[in-house]
Amino acid sequence: MFRLATSPSAAFLMLFPTIGYYTFATYANVFLNADSNIGGVLIRSISLAILFIAWFLVPNNKRVRFGHLLAPAVIFIFLYGSRLLENMWIEEMRIPPGNDLVLLILFLSGVVPAIILASMERAICDEDMIALLSLFSVTFVIGMWLNREVLMQAAERRMMLDKVNPIALAYSASSFIIFYLLSFARSKRTMVEAVVIVPILLIIVSLARSRGMMISTGVTLAIYIIVLRGTRRIWTLAAVSLAAVVIGAYANPEYIERAADALSRLDADNDMSTAGHLLAFQGAWNQFLADPIFGRYAIELVTAYYPHNIYLESLMSVGIIGTVPFLVHCGMSLRAAIGLIRERDASFTRVFIALLFIRDAVGAAGSGAVWSVSGFWIASFLVIMMWYGRKRDLRLLHRRWRIQSPMSQDGRSPRPQKPIFGHY
Asked: What is the pTM of this model?
């Protein structure tokens, strides 16, 4: 049990916000003072402790060297972090929800965990991930049940808790839905869990009414089906279609109506949230046009808040100079995620993290700030190392093998066998 609780898989799940953090935030909402931040501090502290213990216990031969693979991300984070400090200390601006909190979340919940997890990605294995995700999903549902009275009162408008906003609830449910989509056929236990838990997760999605989550998860599943090869695409499409038919036939029409209503309210004239987002988008774009090369401010000045789009936020805060490495990092991450999905012998862990990255990358165009999207940074660093890091290691090993191996009778070196690195 100690090995599992301090494994790299446990560290990843605890630090990925829409799995670990918000699962335990439902319990903080029940047992701790709603006006206190002790619950969030405790969850993050335990998560970091697990991360450092896991890193210490991982053997050196399972730790990965980054090389140049994460250079674009490091350059962008340096420029963006410098912009934050310049705004905070020289301009004496307050970055909502608070300067200290912004820096702590950016580095202690996002960048530092992303780097450490990427360095030990070889030690994240399917068996641990599936066992822990199963445990986390059950824990999340129990936490929601403990808050059932508060949740049902809020559900008339949007399901939420004091410690968990409706967007976080929806994305947490989405994370577990993706887990069961990939794993439900692996064993009878996970199949039974999926039959029991997925309907509850779908109810949470419909009552949270997060359009961004619905759109980003839908786009992610569409990309997943499109990039799959051969019979995997057919079986996945059949499973998704069957699930849609079952939901349409047996789900309470009220829940379907609420989800459809949330998706239909995209008109800025009829929805204040959409109008606010468009106002922030326009303001961020205008700030970029005013300082297109280097950018100027880390917040959108009209709303005095982040613009709910990390790509526009990058343009307005660090300009073209900083956005170019950021887009290079995003492009590398997307290529890596698609490559991991298309692998014929792809492991569950690789595909799961790849789908989480795609979902969060799409969702970040309508929600979150560069400093707050911890899941985006963690998943993007991991998929890059899982894909490009493996290819780099194979090239180095092949080159070393060619130098050291004797020539065959026909004067050519025989083709080396594919090595195994961790779970590869």
From this structure: 0.89
